[in-house]
Amino acid sequence: MDTPRPNLPPIPQRKAPSSGRWYLRIPAKIFILLAVIFVVCFPYPRQFARHLHRIRNMQEMIEPDAPELRPWVDELSARIAKAPQTQPSAQISAERISQHEVERFVYEHVKYEWDWNLWGSADYMPTVHEMFEKAKEFGGQVKEDCDGRAVMAASLMKSLGYQPRIVTDFRHVWVTTPEGEWMGPGGPKSMVSTSQGTQVNWASAGSNFAISLSYGIAVFPFFRELIILAAIFILSLRRWSRFWPAAIGLILLFQGLLFMRLGFFAPQAIQREVSSWPTWIGIVHVAAGLAACFVSSRRPKVASV
Predict the structure, then answer these.
(1) What are the tens digits of pLDDT across the range 205-250?
(2) Do 253 and 289 form a contact (C-beta atoms < 8 A)?
(3) Residue 124 and residue 52: Cα distance in Å, rounded?
(4) What pLDDT sits at residue 160?
(5) For range 131-141, the mean pLDDT
(6) What is this structure's pTM?
(7) DSSP structural state of residue 15
(8) Rounded mean pLDDT of the chain?
(9) Domain residues for 263?
């Protein structure tokens, strides 16, 4: 005779974790990532707002009548008065000699320093007054990177009667006048200052994207970039993410960052001929890393009973 089986409760099936409302989750994660990038690159919102306003109209940054500039104008005028005697040449106009002296003068008097060391931000275009005020922290030594040097040179040239414009290829900022280009001309101009505001050449901006990105990543503090990388990795995961695909994704993300940092081999020199291929390889690595993180975060299948 068969032994009766006890009435046991049914074994519950294990449900897969809910994917949640992806249309809310994904935009929220993108917003958090953008917020992290912004805070890492531009921790001072008011300073960033001033910077954006100045980039939109770089011509307004040229201040020939700045009071702090007067001693330098007098010194420059005395130097220029001697320049034709020390550099006689029938092929070099007096205007070019004068502007060449301005260029040399700015290189001598404005020491190069990164914006994140001076202003705490990835980029900042200061006024002439701000540069001299900041110099008080360094015993009177004016320090700036290429955009500050361009503002200073353009202001001095304007005070001497020339017609300067500030231009950039997104890697470098320099000065152009009808007589020539000064302060280390870079690549194809992406933005040019005019009396109507800054004009953007979108075709040039697109062609400059990869190498400009590589240059910016190469010279930016590595620790700050690691914070952004960590944010990208953490936000790409879910609570059920698998270890090994996530680990591979992290390795690929890190390799991508290293490749992009190597894209500009000589960050101190502004050279147009530098190859941008490491940047593209870095972008491919980052995309592959994100894909691996996505695979690790796929929902596990429902367990069958």
Answers:
(1) 988 887 788 888 888 999 999 999 999 999 999 888 889 899 999 9
(2) yes
(3) 9
(4) 93
(5) 96
(6) 0.84
(7) P
(8) 87
(9) 217-296
Same-domain status, 55 and 183: yes
Contact predicate 292/248, CB 8 Å:
yes
CA distance 109 to 112: 10
pLDDT of residue 296: 86
* Residue 156 structure tokens: 């001095």
Same-domain status, 235 and 181: no
For the stretch 283-297, pLDDT in tens is 899 999 999 998 888
- Any residues with CB less than 8 A from the CB of 48 and at least 6 apart, and which? 38, 42, 121
Give strand pairing partners of 143. Answer: 111
In a domain? residue 14: no
Give the pLDDT confidence score for residue 251 in this predicted structure: 95
Provide CB contacts within 8 A for 215, sequence distance 6+.
Answer: 171, 263, 264, 267
pLDDT at residue number 92: 65
Q: Write down the H helix ranges in the chain.
A: 22-41, 45-56, 70-86, 94-109, 115-118, 128-135, 146-159, 202-207, 209-219, 222-235, 243-262, 277-296
151 in the same domain as 229: no
* Residue 77 maps to a domain: yes
